[in-house]
């Protein structure tokens, strides 16, 4: 009888623990496109900090560490049964979408997320700031700029470009957009576009940025025409961009984690994709001086990093 009574007590305690919030903590699966990439690992690190603070468990799966990533990821999902899969980078999201379309998916660090196969139960934090934010900062730094040009592919970036044009028009800036079908058209498109503009804007279009050669072609043409280049990421500063306004990596990680918590508790509508909450501004003083381009000196207070010429 004593043993039976003891078992009853254990059962009652188990029920109490569950009802009082002592159930097994929720588990998140983090799928990283490549944890050797600094930006991906920075985002993952901040994401995990927030999970830990909220008593969530997680399992990590790095695509670069698995020969048969698709099969191994599918098996891991079956074993772990996570409440949500957090995908860092486009490769991670595409794979998770293929093997676990019935799971809640959250992505970040995906270039031009609008081109992704977004289904029900998908959420995300965009890789780029809103065009309104970028144009406002551009106007602040370069108040004399009147016309900005960009290349894009209609299939992937039409809606984004239309938003850019609308936001720019509100601030008195004219956007000349030149569509291309493939990277082979970049040279001719630049020859037609560059003489008409004051500045070239690199957007995260997968056709325009299909290769390193395409990027080099853009910067070489801009330098020959003495046209400044603005970019959505500081990775283009080394190429010669005069200004880059990019999403802050650590903030993306924390923001993604906060969104994950809300998704787990069904507190956010399906299909929600948030704009990044923080930004990093990098100014290429060396490129500015070479072009003799005037900018608003008061805007220096908004700069996180200034790149000088190597001596």
TrEMBL record:
Show the Pfam families listed in the entry.
ABC_sub_bind (PF04392)
Q: Which InterPro entries match?
A: ABC_transpt-TYRBP-like
The identity of this protein, by name, is: Putative ABC transport system substrate-binding protein
